[in-house]
């Protein structure tokens, strides 16, 4: 199998003038590695001696050691290079003048997982907006979308429900790479920063991560494997209710359940089309932390059998609809705060819509929910076309 080569590799093979002559800051985390598992920080320091002036870290920290949402990381000094490490998920999410002092280019080498609510893409937008204001250059070293670049799914975020888990109107599963999103955001939403995307070679839109030949390194503590990324565009919405999304287990997002869940009722309440491309295998689990820690949760593990037919957002919305229908007294929405929003329901922020949550409460069938967002999704498909770098 031919291996995909990343933007990081291409930068190091032939460093352009902006990398050779300027001072660089690097936004990275543990998944920012080359094919030999060596970190981008070390590879850049070796190939471009003296170029690194700062390191930036996204949510979960530079070493992804912060476990949950809204667990902030602090600043520090990198023991390897001696340069400062600045957190963009702590006292600020916006790079300050102090962080940018002497920096000519902020290099972004982050593994995304193809889902709107994964915050790394929104940290990128803050960097880009700061660049437009302060005049520095942004270079995105592109990496694969691990769940493919063809399928898109879900409603677009509504203006009243934008947040750090959805700053711009894109669907839950966007089907774009980090570099493509950067180009899309920069023009479509008027950021207008000085932007370079260093593309991959060998990646096509139909690829999933296992097709790339690249090593999987968990980009966040609860994303241990490609299988978790595949179900994440749906299962992440369980963060907005009292169903466990499997945090505190070895298979986060693949497992879900609750002590009160009647598994027979739930599986019989789901629409047949929601189960296309997957099997829900009944199981039990006890989370070691998070929701229902130490309690036996009755539920399922999602096994994806056909990635092309599987629709994670559709499945998880239907899981919530079924859980509410069968357990009206036990099911509950999570209350604020969630990702720096202290008033609106977390579920509304995750879905990007209060109306969609209310439709779930009303028991609206899954096909009708999909029909409600189809026009917006079609518009997104058309609008993204001009910014797609890679072939089908």
Automatic annotation (TrEMBL):
Pfam families membership: NamZ_C (PF20732), NamZ_N (PF07075)
Domain Peptidoglycan beta-N-acetylmuramidase NamZ N-terminal: 25-224
Record-level Gene Ontology MF annotations: peptidoglycan beta-N-acetylmuramidase activity
Membrane-crossing segments per the record: none
Superkingdom in the source lineage: Bacteria
InterPro entries cross-referenced by the UniProt entry: NamZ, NamZ_C, NamZ_N
Occurrences of domain Peptidoglycan beta-N-acetylmuramidase NamZ C-terminal (ranges): 230-390
Protein name: Uncharacterized conserved protein ucp016719
Naturally occurring in which organism (per UniProt): Desulfoluna butyratoxydans
Lineage: Bacteria, Pseudomonadati, Thermodesulfobacteriota, Desulfobacteria, Desulfobacterales
């Amino acid at each position: 199998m031919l291996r995909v080569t990343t933007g990081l590799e291409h930068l190091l093979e032939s460093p352009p003038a902006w990398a050779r002559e300027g001072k660089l800051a690097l936004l990275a985390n543990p998944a920012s590695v080359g094919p030999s598992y060596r970190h981008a920080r070390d590879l850049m320091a070796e190939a471009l001696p003296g170029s690194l002036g700062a390191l930036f870290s996204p949510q979960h920290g530079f070493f992804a050691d912060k476990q949950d949402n809204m667990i902030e990381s602090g600043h520090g000094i990198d023991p390897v290079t001696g340069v400062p490490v600045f957190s963009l998920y702590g006292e600020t999410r916006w790079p300050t003048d102090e962080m940018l002092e002497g920096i000519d280019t902020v290099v972004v080498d982050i593994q995304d997982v193809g889902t709107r609510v994964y915050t790394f893409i929104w940290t990128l937008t803050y960097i880009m907006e700061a660049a437009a204001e302060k005049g520095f250059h942004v270079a995105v070293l592109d990496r694969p979308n691990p769940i493919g670049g063809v399928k898109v799914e879900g409603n677009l975020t509504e203006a009243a429900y934008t947040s750090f888990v959805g700053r711009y109107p894109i669907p839950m599963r966007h089907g774009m790479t980090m570099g493509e999103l950067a180009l899309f955001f920069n023009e479509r939403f008027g950021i207008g920063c000085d932007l370079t995307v260093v593309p991959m070679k060998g990646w096509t839109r139909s690829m999933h991560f296992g097709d790339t030949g690249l090593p999987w390194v968990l980009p966040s503590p609860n994303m241990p494997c490609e299988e978790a990324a595949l179900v994440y565009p749906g299962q992440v919405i369980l963060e907005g209710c009292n169903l466990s999304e499997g945090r505190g287990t070895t298979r986060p997002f693949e497992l879900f359940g609750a002590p009160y869940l009647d598994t027979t009722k739930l599986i019989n309440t789901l629409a047949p089309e929601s189960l296309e491309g997957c099997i829900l295998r009944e199981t039990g689990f006890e989370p070691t932390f998070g929701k229902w820690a130490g309690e036996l949760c009755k539920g399922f593990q999602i096994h994806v059998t056909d990635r092309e037919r599987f629709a994670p957002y559709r499945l998880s919305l239907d899981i919530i609809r079924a859980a509410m229908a069968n357990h009206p007294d036990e099911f509950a929405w999570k209350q604020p705060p969630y990702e720096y929003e202290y008033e609106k329901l977390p579920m509304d922020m995750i879905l990007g819509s209060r109306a969609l949550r209310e439709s779930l409460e009303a028991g609206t069938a899954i096909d009708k929910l999909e029909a409600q967002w189809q026009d917006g999704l079609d518009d997104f498909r058309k609008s993204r076309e001009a910014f797609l770098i890679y072939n089908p």
